[in-house]
Design brief:
single chain, 198 residues, Glutaredoxin, 2 domains, 9 helices, elongated
């Protein structure tokens, strides 16, 4: 989940990783500045130490509580599917395997729309694993118009490629798999890879 600060930094041209970590750095610097000011007060030494500790840790801890850092934000964790359907796209293509009615699939829309805006050359396809015309219409309505929404007879193979985790993100280039991420491993490192992929 993005917040105003992260969105602002992204819009200023920072990477997804920088936008995630700069607010933490700023809070630590702010805490140190407050700590230095407290150090010059007439408080007892143990009160100074406690106040400095709270100044540094409280803003950081509060921000972390609302906007945590996950393991995929630190390390790019892709996986290798055992089964892959054949794809017709030669150009670099991100296929987002989705299940109609899945709240996590719907939550992916904002980020994928941003990726499309940041990297217009990347072809993106939302691959439904269920032939639900209403879902197709809905996704076409809310996604960037240049993002394709598709259903194919290979749906069972797409389910196996996603290993039952929705959404899953599979990056292909020249019809070959380059990287794949489950919803739980799709962090800012993966987003930076997609942003600059060409």
């Amino acid at each position: 989940m993005q917040n105003f600060v992260e969105t602002f930094l992204l819009n200023c041209g920072f990477s997804w990783t920088s936008s995630k970590f700069i607010p933490y750095l700023l809070l630590v610097v702010l805490g140190i500045i407050c700590g230095i000011k407290i150090k010059n007060t007439l408080l007892r030494p143990w009160l100074k130490i406690l106040a400095i500790f709270l100044c540094i840790s409280l803003p950081f801890g509060t921000y972390f509580y609302f906007f945590p850092i996950y393991h995929p934000d630190l390390i790019n964790q892709s996986y290798r599917p055992q089964i892959l359907p054949k794809i017709p796209y030669k150009a670099p293509t991100l296929i987002v395997v989705i299940l109609p009615g899945c709240p996590y699939c719907e939550a992916s829309i904002d980020i994928i729309n941003q990726i499309k805006a940041q990297n217009p050359k990347l072809h993106i396809v939302y691959q439904l694993v269920s032939d639900d015309p209403e879902s197709q219409k809905w996704f076409k309505k809310v996604l960037n118009k240049k993002i394709e929404v598709s259903y194919s007879k290979q749906a069972p193979l797409w389910m196996l490629a996603a290993e039952g985790v929705f959404p899953s993100y599979l990056l292909f280039d020249n019809k070959r798999l380059k990287a794949a991420w489950h919803n739980t491993t799709f962090g800012v490192r993966a987003l930076d890879e997609l942003r600059s992929y060409n």
